[in-house]
Amino acid sequence: MRARILLVEDDSNLVELVRYNLEKEGFEVIATHDGEEALALAEDERPDVIILDWMISNLSGIEVCRRLRREPETAGVPIIMLTARAEEGDRVRGLETGADDYVTKPFSPRELVARVRALLRRLRPALSGGQLEYGGLVMDTTAHKVTRDGVPVQLGPTEFRLLRHFLEHPGRVFSREQLLDAVWGRDVYVEQRTVDVHIRRLRKAINGEDLPDLIRTVRSAGYALDADGVTVAAGTGAPVGGTTR
pTM, whole model, 2 decimals? Predict the structure, then answer.
């Protein structure tokens, strides 16, 4: 599985340099020089890491970072600021706005790749190997097996793909449309309410009779794999008392 990188940079030569080094290491790279387009791509393409320059067209990188952190769909995406602004105050501002790492120009492409890998290991451990883990759930993607707290979990093919997608992006909220694109594919027409059906099945399978619900329902937004999710009535997939978070 290839991690997807969104590169937001207005220097075309630098874009090609970074793209070459990332793709050589097996990453998929999407690039733009425009802050407004970066926000749209972050929502539509669901990158695993965003490399963000400060000085870009239409919106500054710092404003893009701020807006990404405000939206549930992109709040959890790791961000590396890549900029010529090297003053301590700039670093502090970038990190306080929500960047996970801050790299100043000039920089070593090898170091940037290493930082991307380190960020993925820390914030997206699911992307670093064939076994995905979160909140007691363990998925062996090679053997196609799932356990929770050591107990086997039986899943249908769609529920398996749905859970894998959640495990690859723990804590991140996905809309029904985004889940349809990721799990069913963009070329397949499926009604959005189908997602709700499979979420209920997935909840029933992984929660059993009395385990805490690991799938959080976000009103008017979608679903997330989140250990702080709501408690549900056993076997129903419906939030107790009808509340959501």
Answer: 0.58
